[in-house]
């Protein structure tokens, strides 16, 4: 996995061969196939390992007010920084954007179900919020090599809370 990640950090997945991985890792092809079916399987396993497991982590992902914990997001980022910088960057996996968005949509869904009883409004609200969140993260990772995640979290917090009414008033 480390050998694959080193290669993936440098080039797109379409350009990575199993031969490249096994040479870099110092293993033979049969060892690779013992654990993975192809290069996409390696990427899938890495992505799965850094996405929170909703059932296991539901309590720690939400703060005492049943809101998504920005502290937790910071901890997740710090633990998986080398992956997020690449996966959400310009050469990252577009499917990862959807995966992480869907995980967090499901996580915050219970908090919004009491506010939006109409399913369509709930779905649009969740999509809007998580698309904006992932969009800001992606923008950050394409602009900075080593983003200040604490500052980013503060900006997102301000956008979601203090600044929301100002932005809405400017737009409409």
Give structural notes.
- The chain is an all-alpha fold and 172 residues long.
- It folds into two domains: 50 residues, Arc Repressor Mutant, subunit A; 120 residues, no CATH class.
- The chain is 74% helix and 0% strand.
- It contains ten helices and no strands.
- The protein is elongated, with a radius of gyration of 19 Å.
- The protein starts with a helix and ends with a helix.
- It comes from Clostridium zeae.
- This is HTH tetR-type domain-containing protein.
- Pfam families: TetR_C_8 (PF14278).
Helix/strand layout:
Blueprint: H1 2-10, H2 18-25, H3 29-35, H4 39-50, H5 54-61, H6 70-87, H7 94-113, H8 119-143, H9 149-160, H10 164-171
Summarize the structure.
With 172 residues, the chain is mainly α. The protein contains 10 helices and no strands.
The number of helical segments is: 10
Structural class: mainly alpha
User: In the residues, how many domains can be counted?
Assistant: 2
Largest sheet: none
Estimate the mean pLDDT confidence: 81
Question: Which strand-content bin applies to the residues?
Answer: under 5%
- Give the total of beta strands: 0
Order of helices and strands: HHHHHHHHHH
* Gyration radius from CA atoms, angstroms: 19 Å
Helix content class: over 70%
Shape: elongated
Spatial gap, N to C terminus: 49 Å
Detail the poorly predicted runs.
none
